[in-house]
């Protein structure tokens, strides 16, 4: 649905050697790769390891576009090693395969894609993937799906404080303040909050184990 915004830029992108991949049926102009056709034609058998295994774990795995906190949005390199380390994110905050994780963060951001989706793969836990965060539907979703872990960005908690009371959940994420966390626990009961902080382009992450 975003291809219309990119299409006017195709000539300049081709000049710069930038490939454009689109997930959708098409048709698309020359030079645009329709991923759906390739996915439909792809074999379900896993290729030999020497085809997909990186030569060096510090090589680039993917690029994550930051939100532009320190300027315009920019591509941050994520190595294979950093991507693999994200497998242990939920284990670090105390979750396990017995938990059900609720994720309403955008998947183009590292918190949603690598920490969220890859983190669920790391502990073998089911993920309830919400297309868009809704404070009014949040608690209803959690009850319906048996959610026990919610990954957040700070401001989401502020919205939830205004919702009806509910008890019993774990939460992990960045950006809250102590007063908000204490108010959240007073209102919603025994919620365990684990604060973390990191950056897509950084090489250090912080975890508040003590609360």
TrEMBL record:
Keywords: Ligase, Lipid metabolism. One of its GO terms (molecular function) is long-chain fatty acid-CoA ligase activity. SUPFAM superfamilies: Acetyl-CoA synthetase-like (SSF56801). InterPro entries: AMP-binding_CS, AMP-dep_synth/lig_dom, ANL_N_sf. The keyword rRNA processing does not apply. GO terms for cellular component: endoplasmic reticulum membrane; plasma membrane. Residues 48-205 form the AMP-dependent synthetase/ligase domain. It comes from the Eukaryota. It catalyses: a very long-chain fatty acid + ATP + CoA = a very long-chain fatty acyl-CoA + AMP + diphosphate; tetracosanoate + ATP + CoA = tetracosanoyl-CoA + AMP + diphosphate. The keyword Repeat does not apply. Pfam families: AMP-binding (PF00501). Belongs to the ATP-dependent AMP-binding enzyme family. PANTHER family: LONG-CHAIN FATTY ACID TRANSPORT PROTEIN, LONG-CHAIN FATTY ACID TRANSPORT PROTEIN 3. This is Long-chain-fatty-acid--CoA ligase. It comes from Nesospiza acunhae.
């Amino acid at each position: 649905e975003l291809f219309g915004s990119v299409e006017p830029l195709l000539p300049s992108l081709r000049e710069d050697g930038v490939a454009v991949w689109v997930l959708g049926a098409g048709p698309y102009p020359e030079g645009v790769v329709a991923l759906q056709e390739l996915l439909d034609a792809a074999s379900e058998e896993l290729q030999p390891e020497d085809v997909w295994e990186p030569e060096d774990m510090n090589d680039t795995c993917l690029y994550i576009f930051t939100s532009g906190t320190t300027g315009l949005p920019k591509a941050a390199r994520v190595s294979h090693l950093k991507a693999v380390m994200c497998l242990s994110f939920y284990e670090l905050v105390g979750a396990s395969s017995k938990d059900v994780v609720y994720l309403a963060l955008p998947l183009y951001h590292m918190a949603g894609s690598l920490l969220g989706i890859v983190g669920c793969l790391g502990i073998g836990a089911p993920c309830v993937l919400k297309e868009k965060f809704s404070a009014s539907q949040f608690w209803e979703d959690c009850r319906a799906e048996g959610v026990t872990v919610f990954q957040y960005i700070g401001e989401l908690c502020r919205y939830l404080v205004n919702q009806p009371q509910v008890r019993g959940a774990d939460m992990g994420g960045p950006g809250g303040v102590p007063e908000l966390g204490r108010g959240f626990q007073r209102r919603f009961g025994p919620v365990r909050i684990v604060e973390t902080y990191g950056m897509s382009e950084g090489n250090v992450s912080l975890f508040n184990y003590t609360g």
